């Protein structure tokens, strides 16, 4: 546990909270000795995470309306993000899993890792208070926000489609041309074609982000106001 505490940058006063946060339901159901799973902590951690992120966005993105704040928060606390944070902390190495879940690759399962991140967060909150939890969350959220700007709120694909639809004979397609990097940190490359001609290229951490980037380049080449 000391190794995980080092990764977390936090030493628990009540070690049992951390142990409970690492106990998957498959293990608790298998040993049947009164051991509780981390599901209740996961429930609490989800709320703590939401409050911390919402509070930070509310106070630091003062010009964004409610809808865009909601969209940004969702992108930061989605399963993909949480399991990435969990992998960064090597939480999977310390999970207590049932034999079947262990054999099934549970230590690398995105949903289990994301839930475990929330459970560990809740354990830190209960052991050290909200300020400890806040610092822990922002440790991961702030780097994500550093890559975020108004681009996340602009739908370049829709804007491009609206322009192309003025000419019914024209059609736009998006082609995935390459992807690189490990599973938890992939980069996708996409081309947008107008009929058979390439009119834009883009890269992104997801296919959708790469498509938006390609559509943006196409709109710029067209001289459209974006």
Widest sheet, order of strands? 1-2-3
Distance between the termini: 51 Å
Order of helices and strands: HHHHHHHHHHEEEH
Low-confidence stretches: none
Oligomer: single chain
Number of helices: 11
**Major sheet summary line:** 3 strands, antiparallel
Total beta strands:
3
Please identify the structural class as seen in this structure. mainly alpha
Overall pLDDT metric: 90
Describe it for me?
The chain is elongated. 28% of the residues are buried. The chain is mainly α and 226 residues long. It has a 3-stranded antiparallel β-sheet with strand order 1-2-3, with helices on one face. It has helices at residues 2-8, 15-21, 25-31, 39-60, 66-76, 79-89, 99-103, 110-128, 130-145, 156-164, 207-222, and strands at 172-180, 187-194, 197-204. Helix 4 packs across helix 5 (66-76). The termini are far apart.
Topology:
Layout: H1 2-8, H2 15-21, H3 25-31, H4 39-60, H5 66-76, H6 79-89, H7 99-103, H8 110-128, H9 130-145, H10 156-164, E1 172-180, E2 187-194, E3 197-204, H11 207-222
Antiparallel strand pairs: 1-2, 2-3
Helix pairs in contact: 2-8, 4-5, 4-8, 4-9, 6-8, 8-9, 10-11
In short:
By secondary structure, the protein is mostly helical. It is built from eleven helices and three strands. It starts with a helix and ends with a helix.
Distinctive features:
single chain, mainly alpha, 3 strands, 226 residues, 11% strand
